[in-house]
Request: fold
Amino acid sequence: GPHGISSLAQGTGDSFAVVSANSSLRYIETIEGLGGEPISFIKALKEHFGCATVDELNKTLQGYTFATDINGDDFIRSIASVDEAADHINFFCDIVSGEKLNLIKRTSLDSPLGRALNSFMQNKPAPIGAILNDCILRRLGYPQEINHVDQLRNMPAAGFSSFGEISGLHVNETLTAIFFYHVPSGTDFTDAYIDAFASRYAGCQAFFFNRTIARQA
Reply:
């Protein structure tokens, strides 16, 4: 069944509520300040990280990314560029007013992939193959580590680099995979994602519904 192997980051506890955004051009202008007023997202991040310039901010942000939380799962939203002249931040996915972005710190590529695979493979036979849709941003962001990911080396696999989407949601920096199994008739087979697919998909639908309400507010 399909399975999202995420993520390469851990939460910091900091979040930002989007006030002004352009989902077509994929950028954020302002976020909600402490008093509810809209403030520049660039200015807010510079103050948060103690950066005096956008160059300093860009260097600092190399160690961080953002995510939308849906029922405890992080859906990564990666920054494409910081546009100081236009005073907005460009992203690789669509973000709308009312959405909340959690700030998360990057970790190494190898460790979370290994943990996710070990968890996924429990109580299953060996897969007969897999199709791996690996977000290109993982390869761009981890050029040294990507050559040393060996967890899938002995499995027949094919795939390509892409920008990711699952259950209708854009997701960056995530490996999304479909694994194939031979399961003889009468043999039990359990997969957490497939078994709970209805509730997972409902959670994604609820995300879009709640995002619309937040945008109206």
Summary: The radius of gyration is 19 Å.
